[in-house]
């Protein structure tokens, strides 16, 4: 999929840098000494932003057996197995409100930001995949793959376990939010507190 309307290079876009659009190397990439790339294709440029091990095309399949567990405004989440046997959550972007190029830009940025995070209360991004390659009949779209968390979000967990003292769980969330807000490449604001709870408190749910 090409993003013809974006004159920004991929490298600047995912880091929210101002891009002068100079080719073959923009000024920001030149100054920061990162590879400059204008190839927005899912089978090349986008995957090259990430370490090779994060390319999960061929490692999982969304077909019978993949259970759709959430359908938000911009994405669906599926629960499925990787070929290695572990259960993963696969988030597929279906953003019909924005132009496809803009939706792709935002999804790539989310994946890039997420893969930079390293905190014990934040579920890691295992990798990315192309929906067209992991789902028969699927169209080219970015998928984000993370470990499946069986206990759901913290509110569900506390309802199911009324004897659990919630303060340590809340402190884990505060720790994760504080990490995001003081992130070394600039503050990250999580726009969905429900999501943040589901994503973050999970380590401690089993403690
Ligand atoms: Zn640039
Ligand atoms: Zn650049």
TrEMBL record:
PROSITE patterns noted in UniProt: PROTEIN_KINASE_DOM (PS50011), ZN2_CY6_FUNGAL_2 (PS50048)
Domain of life: Eukaryota
Protein's recorded name: Kinase-like protein
Annotated Protein kinase domain residues: 63-207
A molecular function GO annotation: DNA-binding transcription factor activity, RNA polymerase II-specific
Domain Zn(2)-C6 fungal-type: 8-38
InterPro entries: Kinase-like_dom_sf, Prot_kinase_dom, Ser/Thr_Kinases-Pseudokinases, Zn2-C6_fun-type_DNA-bd_sf, Zn2Cys6_DnaBD
Listed CDD domains: GAL4
């Amino acid at each position: 999929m090409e993003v013809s309307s974006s004159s920004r290079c991929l490298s600047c876009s995912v880091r929210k840098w101002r891009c002068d659009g100079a080719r073959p190397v923009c000024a920001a990439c030149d100054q920061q000494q990162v590879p400059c790339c204008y190839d927005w294709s899912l089978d090349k440029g986008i995957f090259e932003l990430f370490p090779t091990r994060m390319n999960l095309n061929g490692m999982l399949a969304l077909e019978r057996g993949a259970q759709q567990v959430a359908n938000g405004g911009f994405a669906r989440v599926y629960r499925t197995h990787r070929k290695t046997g572990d259960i993963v959550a696969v988030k597929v972007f279906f953003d019909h409100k924005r132009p496809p190029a803009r939706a792709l830009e935002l999804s790539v940025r989310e994946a890039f930001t997420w893969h930079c995070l390293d905190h014990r209360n934040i579920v890691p991004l295992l990798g990315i995949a192309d929906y067209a390659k992991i789902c028969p009949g699927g169209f080219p779209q970015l998928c984000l793959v993370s470990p499946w968390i069986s206990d759901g979000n913290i509110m569900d967990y506390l309802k199911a376990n009324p004897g659990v003292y919630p303060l340590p769980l809340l402190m884990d969330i505060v720790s994760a939010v504080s990490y995001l807000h003081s992130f070394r490449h600039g503050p990250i604001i999580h726009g969905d507190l429900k999501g943040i709870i589901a994503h973050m408190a999970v380590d401690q749910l089993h403690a």
